[in-house]
Amino acid sequence: MTQSLLEHHSEEELWAAYKQRKDPLIREAFIKQYAPLVKYVAGKVVANMPSSVEFDDLVGFGVFGLIDAIDKYDPDKNVKFKTYAVTRIRGAIYDELRSIDWVPRSVRQKTREIEEAIVQTEAKLGRPATDQEIAESLGLSDEEFSKTMLKISSTSVLSLNDVWYTADETEHMTIGDSIESPGSMSPDSITEREEIRRVIVEAIQELPDKEKKVLVLYYYEELTLKEIGKVLEVTESRISQLHTKAILRLRARLTHYRKGIV
Predict the structure, then answer these.
(1) 190 and 68, same structural domain?
(2) Contacts for 96 with CB less than 8 Å, ≥ 6 apart
(3) CB burial class (10 A; 0-12, 13-18, 19+) of residue 27?
(4) Are 44 and 159 part of one and the same domain?
(5) Which of 5, 53, 115, 185 sits in a 20 to 30 Å window from 145, CA-based?
(6) Which DSSP symbol is given to 156?
(7) CA gap 166, 189 in Å, rounded
(8) Which residue range(s) make up the domain with 11?
(9) Which residues sit opposite 165 in a β-bridge?
């Protein structure tokens, strides 16, 4: 039945129909059609995860993201569904990994300490802090800081999806949310989200060059950390560290924003 829907109707017609009546048969047809997209995203994510993370588990998590994308996609927006769905699928996978909470408590604590050090150091300097300046604020040598970052980057689940939080801490938005129609939001919420986008864009522009390249290649070119390492001619572990530092810097910048420092 679902296959016949795809054969006898254009995708545009099906999206228009689904938007009107949320027909479960149409949704099932879309799920089957885009199931390979879930495996694609899961494959990209698992390539950067510890060996204990199973590909099939990530696929299962990603299906929830696909269903969420189908339900919330607005075909009137000038955005391809695949582009929109990838963010939703990846976000669902990371959300589930975080909910499992397999990261050691000591690593989570150290991550918070480094993020706070970035906040305080950059507030004092009025510019992005170097690794050496962050290490000094933590009372660590350059080598100790490097080892700490290596440990965090090899065990933590940090994603650009973590960055998009509103000021009241009760609501977050992913990159995909910026594509959605904000019709149900209050004017104040819309203004705040636009301001958060502005802060993040500025923060990305101010990242050290290699960290900026890693984010672009990972989130927009969708390369794995291993593939990025080949492009930038450094090790995969080094790329993992750069990715983690970039995310911590962006989260710190939003903390500045919430506290009114920026």
Answers:
(1) no
(2) 61, 64
(3) middle
(4) no
(5) 53
(6) -
(7) 9
(8) 2-100
(9) 172
Number of residues that this document lists for the chain: 262
Mean pLDDT by 10 residues, the chain (262 residues): 59 85 89 93 82 86 93 84 88 82 76 89 87 94 89 72 49 48 54 70 83 84 86 89 87 72 48
Judgement on whether residues 150 and 203 belong to the same structural domain of the protein: yes
Beta-carbon count within 10 A of 132 CB? 12
d(CA 193, CA 182): 10
DSSP secondary-structure letter at 51? T
Whether the CB-CB separation of 255 and 249 falls below 8 Å is answered with no
Q: Are residues 51 and 31 in the same domain?
A: yes
Rg (CA), the chain: 20
- Structural domain tally of the chain? 2
User: What are the structure tokens assigned to 241, written together?
Assistant: 């560290």
What tokens does 109 get? 């604590």
Neighbouring-strand partners of residue 172: 165
H-only helix segments in the chain:
2-8, 11-21, 24-46, 55-72, 81-100, 105-125, 131-138, 142-155, 187-206, 209-215, 225-232, 236-258
Q: Phi and psi at residue 254, in whole multiples of 5°?
A: -70, -30
Instruction: State the residue for tokens 């992913």.
Output: 174
Angle, helix 131-138 to helix 142-155, in steps of 10 degrees: 100
- What is the DSSP-derived secondary structure letter of residue 179? T
